[in-house]
Design brief:
Layout lengths: L10 H5 L10 E2 H11 L5 H13 L4 E5 L5 E5 L2 H13 L4 E3 L9 H6 L2 E4 L4 H6 L6 E4 L6 H4 L11 E9 L14 E6 L15 E6 L21 E8 L13 E6 L5 H5 L6 E6 L21 E6 L19 E5 L3 E2 L4 H4 L6 E5 L3 E2 L2 E3 L11 E5 L5 E3 L10 E5 L19 E5 L3 H16 L6 E5 L10
Parallel strand pairs: 4-5, 5-6, 6-7, 7-8, 8-9, 9-10, 10-11, 11-12, 12-13, 13-14, 14-16, 15-17, 16-19, 18-20, 19-21, 21-22, 22-23
Antiparallel strand pairs: 1-3, 2-3
């Protein structure tokens, strides 16, 4: 376990794990975005390779993986973290103000620090930072930070600014003068100010809202001049301005208002890969806008949540991009017959139906309705009672996850014939559904198939896996 034997390209990625407080569960997508913003790697694929290399060396632990084995969250052991902090200090890579530490970085170290992390409130250290600082992370509530924002203006080389557990009353305009920023994260009660468009180098922008609004805030029109933007996450659902340019690099939009879903918008962000759409009962519900999704030829992940109080009236002939690999539908209240529009997706691997994403007590599939590539199916909080399907409908299914399906009488018996099926999980479902799952397992075991695992969690005290 020697840092010195690490390849040079892995060393900064490894040391960067010291940014996070002890016992942190780190979102890997965010971690890779930080690596990119720091200039350690060039893209997400390279980031995944670096992470898996660190995991294979037992330097980073994967906390959670997706159904296909891809790492979702990670962390480091306490002993590894101690090693990281020692080496980071020795290399003058990173300084940290730690919780409950008797001694923290000296004034000399503060003046020479290029990356600094506040794991505890230390106003004195903040005032001593040099203007050569490139990275600032605030993890604990820095009570007076909103009053000291003007000091940030002097950090003109800052590339990464992440402020957690602090909520600004108004949009901090001083931040928009930090034109070298690649990564920006903070929370405020105010709308996004137009001057954010001055951050022309920004790649990742994560903005939380202190209070969710009833009507969506609008992104300023200057967003169309931020040509390097790759990831935009807004805590509340938001409206996008009319396009005045193209954002060729934009790959991810989170919590876009349904009313903004137009062909005009999507044609201006042609390389989008991840999209989350939010409908709201106070907005004019024109769900035919979903047809405009067909403009997104590169879209791989779509999440759509409709908080309207009336059942969705999505057109029966709505078109979803053939490129979709993962689809989540929540509160959309679609009839099960509309699943025909989903079945036709040739590359769909993950389907999640949550909170009455589909309504009705019957889902009947005929032999011609085939999810050709589906590997993971989640059905949660639906009124489904009768489900007719077989192995022919799900030829590549690996995991079936049922949660709060209290009316479901049974899992289709033929699911045991799906040769790729590895597990069936039931969380607080009906007794009869749980029994049918066990019956499928016992039948397969009697035929010599020991590979199918059936897990049943029917009691409030049972621990449930997060999906």
């Amino acid at each position: 376990m020697s840092y010195n034997y690490l390849p040079d390209h892995l060393k900064p990625c490894f040391l960067y794990m010291g940014v996070f407080p002890e016992d942190s569960v780190v979102n890997i997508v965010r971690l890779i975005n930080l690596w990119i913003s720091e200039g350690f790697i060039s893209d997400e694929l390279e980031g995944r390779d670096c992470l898996e290399d660190l995991v294979s060396r037992n330097l980073v632990m994967v906390r959670n993986r997706s159904f296909n084995g891809e790492a979702k969250t990670c962390g480091v052991h306490d002993l590894i973290r101690d090693l990281i902090l020692r080496e980071a200090e020795k290399e003058k890579f990173l300084e940290v103000t730690r919780i409950h530490e008797a001694t923290n970085p000296s004034a000399e170290k503060l003046r020479s620090a290029r990356r600094y992390c506040f794991h505890s409130h230390d106003q004195a250290a903040f005032w001593k930072l040099s203007n050569i600082i490139r990275t600032l992370h605030f993890f604990e509530g820095f009570k007076e930070l909103s009053k000291q924002v003007p000091l940030l203006v002097s950090f003109k080389l800052l590339r990464v600014l992440a402020i957690l557990n602090v909520t600004f009353q108004t949009f901090p305009l001083e931040i928009t003068k930090l034109v070298q920023l690649r990564y920006l994260q903070f929370t405020c009660y105010d709308d996004i100010h137009w001057s954010v468009s001055k951050l022309y180098n920004l790649q990742t922008f994560i903005l939380g809202y202190g209070v969710a609004g009833l009507l969506p805030p609008t992104i300023p029109a200057g967003i169309w001049q931020m040509s390097n933007l790759r990831h935009l996450h807004i805590g509340d659902f938001f409206s996008f301005p009319i396009p005045s340019n193209k954002l060729q690099n934009l790959q991810e939009l989170s919590r876009l208002a349904l009313t903004s879903c137009t062909s005009e918008l999507f044609s201006a962000i042609p390389n989008l890969k991840k999209l989350k759409i939010i409908g709201n009962y106070l907005m004019e519900m024109k769900r035919e806008r979903l047809n405009s999704l067909s403009c997104l030829k590169e879209l791989e992940i779509l999440k759509y949540r409709d908080d309207g109080i009336q059942p969705s009236q999505i057109p029966s002939k709505y078109v979803l991009p053939a490129s979709l690999k993962r689809l989540t539908l929540s509160c959309t209240s679609l009839p099960w017959k509309d699943m025909a529009n989903v079945i036709t997706l040739p590359n769909l691997e993950v389907l999640k139906i949550k909170d009455n994403g589909f309504l009705g007590d019957e889902w009947m599939l005929n032999d011609e309705e085939i999810f050709k590539q589906l590997k993971f199916l989640l059905i949660s909080w639906t009124g489904l009672k009768h489900w007719k399907a077989g192995s022919v409908n799900f030829p590549k299914l690996q995991r079936l996850f049922l949660k709060r399906c209290m009316n479901l009488e049974k899992i289709p018996q033929d699911f045991g014939e799906i040769c790729t099926l590895e597990s069936i999980e039931l969380h607080k479902c009906s007794i009869s559904a749980a029994k049918s799952g066990k019956d499928i397992q016992e039948e397969q075991e009697s035929m010599g198939n020991e590979c199918l695992n059936v897990l049943i969690y029917n009691h409030p005290s049972s621990s449930a896996q997060h999906i």
